[in-house]
Model the fold of this input.
Amino acid sequence: MIEKFSELNNPEMWYDQATMTTLRGWFGQTRKCPACNRVHSLHTRMMESDKNIAMNIGQYLAVLGFRGSCLDVMDERTKDAAGDALKQGLAAFRPKAVVYTRRDLHADEQALGTLLMGLRDKPNFLFSCGSGTLTDITRYNSFITGIPFVAFATAASVDGFASGSTPLLVNGFKTTYPGVAPEAIFYDPYVLAAAPQKMTAAGFGDILAKVIALLDWRLAYTVEDEAYCPLIAALVDRAVEDCLNLAGDLAVPSGQTTPDQLKKRAAASGRLMEILALTGMAMQMMGSTRPASGGDHHISHLLEMRDIQMEREGSLHGDKVGIGTLISMVMYQKLFAGSAMPRQRPVLAADIWEKEVRRVYGPLAAHALATNQPQPPQGDVWDKQKQLLERAMQTFGFAAVERFKTLIPLARDKILAMDGPVRPDQLGYTVQDTYDAIAFGKEVRPKFTILRLAERYGWLYDLAEEISAGLPRGDLY
Done:
């Protein structure tokens, strides 16, 4: 294994290979990685886009070797966006459809069961038509039944299209389950461009989150020896930079009628979709969500679970993830202010932690308590981790945090230009909701992130209080 602080573990060393061309060379293959020496697999065999591709989808499926019948999975909105055209394009495969009518659809037990019941005719493959939730519902049923699936994206709103794992709401708790990646991903840039502006903003927010995911991941590798690949990190890092450059064209308002405006928006939406798919493929290759999900997602997951508990209609995943990313960047800045290691503070007592987890998670607390330690590492274990953290911060961490000074206002303005939210109160969350998400979002997953890092130094709960109070006032960004 390469030494943790070797230059070979720097993603920048692999930028020349971190291209979409390189990734396409991995389609449908298993290869040994030149960067980390692990074996990576990419189940997805094809990704294609074109104007009116839905009408001609059959020819691509024939190349992939699909035969027999298919079952389309969509909701009423995605049926209007592309479902009817797909029905024509899939005519040779005798398509039938499951069309969801729930207004606030989640990948939960009810939705999974609905699709499972729709498999009674034993189709040869599934065809999801939509964005993240519909793809996840299809993905998990594909995994359980062994029936392959293909994804058609109707909005560039989430990075999960190409993922091999499935985030599900089970008994109200957001949990990652196994899944299977699609055999192929298709999209029409003009269909993406016609999607609601808020969905495009959500997709941008989901890509922005990789800034935190990559830093969290590299520190987790340093401190806890998690599996890490600098080539995959480089692929995702370059995707973030490309997305930031796209933001201006993505902000062109929906509904513009001039050909030039529509063409520009379609091109930008198509490129955003490619970037989202790339990050999903990075998760496939790594066999985990690490390349794309950090503390930002934990904040988002707890807010989503709070919506379910309160029986209120939730917002888009990427909206909350984008907010979680801005919050996480602020946390990194405050924890490592002045490019210095934080002073150690007392950690929360185990009994108080349990009481707070029960308050925040309510009927879901048993799961959170069972999957998390009541206190972070201490003594010799934490002393060794602190030494590794200090070296990591000196090697790459302080430079990353310094960049947040300019990235926070840049990202904020680009999200606002797309009519996306940048603060929890814009989505109806209270100061208490925000505090709970920052302070106890970490209990959603036992994974090392900025939230765990702040907890180990004894700063988390003070930062959660300061940030949650300051956000509605506009004190932070």
